[in-house]
Design goal:
2 copies of one chain form a homodimer. The first copy, chain A, has a single domain, classed as HIT-like (HIT family, subunit A), CATH 3.30.428.10. Chain A contains 8 helices and 15 strands. Strand 1 of chain A pairs antiparallel with strand 6 of chain B, so a sheet runs across the interface.
């Protein structure tokens, strides 16, 4: 009998379809595309030497080993084809227009690309701990920088790995977008955790963390700062959340001491997926409270990693209920063994 | 400058990214897979002669031209690998269990497959008007049948066309699932239209229909019963809604007289997409009110057709804001010309 499980934080339901259960092997991709990429591609706009093909960087970490001028290990540039555009001057945050029955506004915001390494052939799972830590530090610093712009209501940090996850460029990179609205889907998540807090006086994510650490079956790995777990109502097979042990609603408060702990854990989880599922396509997003909710006691930032092993189809679109063919406890067990 | 547009019914935002604008040609698939399929495949469980490979049909339309016993033109069978399972007896609609901090329940419901034609090589766009009308009649009749089961809170009718839309079997078919819960995503949609009704005293979908008919730019085609349009805040390129002119929140009230009008329009819209976009992958869903909201004045059922031309990636997942690279007015114009 399949089970319906509800995520207490978002009130979203997932169907855990045990009758359709699959083993990790069924998902493993057997092409070795990532391994066979060259470490340099002269046509890649993100490769060293092609810096002129991207807009001027807004941030850059120079390579401590190279020493020579112009060598970098992480580089952040404005997206050449931005989804949202930095406004002139201070921006006008009230530029929403009623068009008869509709609401429309200028697509102001920010859209940056984090080039994670000069090496074209790598991915986060195959970078060193220090390199992934540098990427996490870059996320935190750019988050704080973009969070200062009055036109950004929310900062979304995300990564699309592989064509099935929507990547157009293979060179390792993540993206950061600042949005001028808090959309309904996010408001709904915030409302759900707010209601939980109003009822019980605790953060639902803190409670999940306490419960899962005791329960153990869904925990993948942990360190002194973070816990990685397969959520009870996982929307997709091998979904993993990396939750900070310390309560904070905004990613921006990530401390210098926590950065290497998150870098280490992010790499560890992605390496487990890489081994178990054969370098799968995935998306991850840093779920953080909007700017004006940064101090709220009810929300708790985390990293949500979603392997793209199955296709969201008509039922999921029409019902808002996900069908997940792998039991989260089984996914966690497999990921624990893949360490 | 990209525009952010809000759907007044769901309060969901879409980014209309004009700088990333694409022409229909950029989406056209140039494989001719559908044309080259055989009209019969001996290994296909949905082909005539293989009826024993599916569970016993719950509904069947015999072929008026064949006359011979056993010949059918539409056939509905329980899904052999159901996402939700029909309970024994009357079912127990209160079988929700608190597992410490989580909610879990048995996955009871219903999952049927509508085999739309005996011809393996067809798709709705290449069936006759009468054949598509028969499919629509089957939807209505099965909707009414499933809506009687006390364990079904919502009936979702949907179709996945092509691998990119999540199909595993190519033989033309749709699916119907009855769910034991009204999930948060649907409740949010209902709440949004309820609030609109509470404020203005009218159905937001009726207002959209009135406005769009006058405005014309987003209308694809219309007949005496239905209007097809590209919604103002389309989530994906070439998204089309088919709205009944007559207000009704539940698909179950579709009248005998309206059935051929919907069949004709559904085929017309899918044919336009087939021509313009080269037999694209798509999902469609019939968005209908849950069982207990069937009489509500604020919701309005419709068919939502979503071509799968782009990939939902990290930003969409993290923000709940869609990025759509085709302006809905342009999509509507192209679809009008493809008639």
């Amino acid at each position: 009998m399949p089970k319906l499980r509800q995520d207490p934080a978002t009130r979203l339901w997932s169907i855990i379809a045990t009758e359709r259960r699959k083993r990790p092997d069924d998902f493993v991709r057997h092409d070795e595309a990532a391994e066979s990429l060259p470490s340099y591609d002269e046509n890649c706009p993100f490769c060293p030497g092609n810096e002129s093909k991207t807009p001027e960087p807004v941030f850059s970490v120079s390579d401590p080993e190279a020493g020579a001028a112009g060598k970098w290990s992480v580089r952040v540039v404005p997206n050449k084809f931005p989804a949202l555009v930095r406004p002139d001057g201070e921006g006008d945050t009230t530029r929403r227009v009623r068009k008869c029955m509709y609401l429309e506004m200028d697509g102001t915001g920010e859209h940056e690309v984090v080039i994670e390494t000069p090496d074209h052939s790598k991915t986060l799972a195959t970078l060193s701990e220090d390199e992934v830590t540098m990427v996490v530090r870059t996320y935190r610093d750019r988050f704080l920088a973009l969070d200062k712009s009055p036109w950004n209501q929310m900062i979304i940090i995300f990564r699309n790995q592989g064509e099935g996850a929507g990547t157009s460029l293979v060179h390792p990179h993540s993206q950061i977008i600042g949005t001028p609205v808090v959309p309904e889907e996010i408001r709904r998540r915030l409302d759900a955790s707010q209601r939980y807090y109003d009822d019980l006086g605790t953060c639902v994510y803190c409670d999940i963390l306490d419960y899962e650490i005791k329960e153990k079956t869904r925990v993948v790995c942990s360190n002194s700062g973070f816990v990685a777990l397969c959520p009870f109502a996982s929307a997709v097979p091998f979904e993993v959340w990396i939750l900070p042990r310390r309560h904070a609603s905004s990613f921006g408060v990530l401390s210098d001491g926590e950065i290497p702990l998150l870098g280490k854990m992010l790499r560890d989880v992605l390496q487990r997926m890489y081994r178990l599922l054969g370098n799968p396509d995935y998306n991850y997003v840093v779920r953080s409270a909007p700017h004006h909710s940064a101090g709220e006691p009810h929300f708790h930032w985390y990293v949500e990693i979603l392997p793209r092993l199955t296709t969201r189809a008509g039922f999921e679109i029409g019902s808002g209920i996900n069908i997940n063919v792998v039991v989260p406890e089984d996914a966690a067990e497999q990921l624990r063994k893949a360490g």
